[in-house]
């Protein structure tokens, strides 16, 4: 019988329980903690020293109103969470992955990955569903139901079919899909999935989904496009009746800083040029937006957009020619 090993496990469990108590309340007296843990105040003092050695700043106050208090330290020690707190933290981190704060998305996903490593098996799958099924090309601002996100994330992870009601063509229809990835844009959440009824890849806005459910039928994953790229191209161009491509004489990073990720796809073409792909209901509209970027550019596609450029140029020249010349002012 491993008496020493059993004693060590007992001490570890007691110290973790002590840490949990210190995180629950502002101040505990020594006798209160001893009574909760069924040990002597002397053992509590030893366990407090063990926590301090692990990096937890446990402060001890003397006299009336004194007691043990968990304070803020210079370094961040591990947190002790119960099941509900861990799941709530994971859901909050998922929301942070699509938050409006620059850089918060990557940090949130890293935190989810760390949680996944230390959580027990019964909770680890919940976190993996969040961290493993989310990609991003911006920050999301439109709120969605966290339960819907978790349902879709689990379906992505477990490779099971999902179903939901979705508006299309003026009516709401039931969609059956093989979910692949959740993607956060600069405005909202999307699901990239293989649409079983249309036999093709589709992107869906999560905030438009209702009655979302995961099914029991598993599927064999298909060769999939890059999730973030596919969704961005769908949002920026494919959903519009007209698509246009331009060669802009400026670095890609410069143009990306001028154009929202949901408005256009910017691809690098050398160090000083880039290709801009966008869509609109009217070609003149997208043409004016590229013109207002302030860079030289060329029309790549469609051919009729070149005609629109010439027509617009003639219209602008005509408007400028109609203005009377400014009178000469003689110097006195």
From TrEMBL:
Keywords: DNA-binding, Transcription, Transcription regulation. Residues 11-66 form the HTH deoR-type domain. It holds the Pfam family HTH_11. SUPFAM superfamilies: Winged helix' DNA-binding domain. InterPro entries: CBASS_pafABC_assoc_protein, DeoR_HTH, HTH_11, PafC-like, Tscrpt_reg_HTH_DeoR_CS, WCX_dom, WH-like_DNA-bd_sf, WH_DNA-bd_sf. This is Helix-turn-helix transcriptional regulator. It comes from Nonomuraea indica.
